[in-house]
Amino acid sequence: MKETKKQRIRKVLKYYARLLMLKDYRVYSRFKTAAEDPEVKGNMAVIHIDEDRKVLYLKLNRYLFNRMKMREVKRYILHELLHSLFGELSIFFESVVREGPYSDRKKKALVNKFDELEHRKINYLINLMLSLDGRKSLQ
Q1: What is the reported pTM?
Q2: Which pairs count as long-range contacts for 66-71, CB under 8 Å and 24+ apart, including other chains?
Q3: Fewest beta carbons less than 10 Å away: which of 52, 54, 95, 120?
Q4: 105 assigned to some structural domain
Q5: Residue 137 lies in a domain
Q6: Neighbour tally for 6: CB within 10 Å
Q7: H or E element, residue 106
Q8: Domain of 106?
Q9: Alpha carbons 60 and 80: distance in angstroms, whole number
């Protein structure tokens, strides 16, 4: 991947982190291949959120990001950063379900349902933000 594209992607990352008011977080990103890190295999990106230390760590699939247009890059960056806004709620929900009087099958179904809901809300927010941001170009 060319250094200029990496710089543009990091600029998008910084822009959306600021726009989402994630100023309390330190945001780190690395471009990885599936051979370097199996966690990115089959994923565009992976985010790890450390709420205690206020750190967001993004692993971006170098192979896939290299082939994306900047509009797609924006969608995936926003997607991962928006997960950080749902992080505490997700942890809370999973702990409530884990402690509840549900069977393992029901617990898994509830967590999957929450995950689906989270992704629907994230996609709605992405579309809204990109439409509002349509006149601004980071390319």
Answers
A1: 0.83
A2: 66/1, 66/5, 70/8, 70/12, 70/138, 70/139, 71/130
A3: 52
A4: yes
A5: no
A6: 16
A7: helix 104-132
A8: 3-132
A9: 10
